[in-house]
Amino acid sequence: MEIKMSTLEKYLYERYSGWTNEQGLFLKLVEEIGEVAEVINMRNGSKLAYGSNLEQKLGEELCDMVHYIVAIAAINNIDLTKTMIEKDKIASKKYNHDNNLESYIINNEK
C-alpha cells in the first residue's frame, strides 16, 4: 500500500485540527528527533543497544518524525507536495543539479 501525501495531510488535519497547535506538535517532533539520534548512536556503537532490532526502531522513529512534520503542515494548510517540488526546484538551481524532483517524477512515473 502506498500513502499519498494529500491523504496523510487530510488524515492528520482531521486528527489534530481544533485541539492542538503547532507548538505542541513541534515539541513532539523535537522529542522524536532525539529518539532518532539515540537509535543512530546505538547503531554506531556510541550508546549501548538493548537487544532490539535497531533498523526497525530507526524506521519507527523516522515515521514518528514524518508524522509530526506532516501534522504541522496540515494544521497550517500547507500543501507539502507542492511546496516540496517548488523548494526542490530552487535547491536544484542553487546547487547546480542536473535534475529536480518534478522532472524525476515526470520521467519515472510513466
Description of the structure:
By secondary structure, the chain is mostly helical. The chain folds into two domains: 72 residues, Helix Hairpins (Orthogonal Bundle), CATH 1.10.287; 32 residues, no CATH class. It is built from five helices and no strands. α2 packs antiparallel against α3. The two termini are 19 Å apart. The relative contact order is 0.13.
What would the keywords be for this entry?
110 residues; mainly alpha; Helix Hairpins; 2 domains; 5 helices
Present the secondary structure layout.
Blueprint lengths: L4 H12 L5 H22 L10 H22 L4 H15 L6 H8 L2
Q: Which runs of at least 5 residues are low in confidence (pLDDT < 50)?
A: none
Radius of gyration using CA atoms only: 17 Å
Q: What is the structural class?
A: mainly alpha
- Mean pLDDT, rounded to whole units? 94
Instruction: Output the number of helix runs.
Output: 5
Total number of beta strands: 0
Overall 3D form: globular
Top CATH class of the largest domain? Mainly Alpha
Oligomer: single chain
Short description:
The protein is mostly helical and 110 residues long.
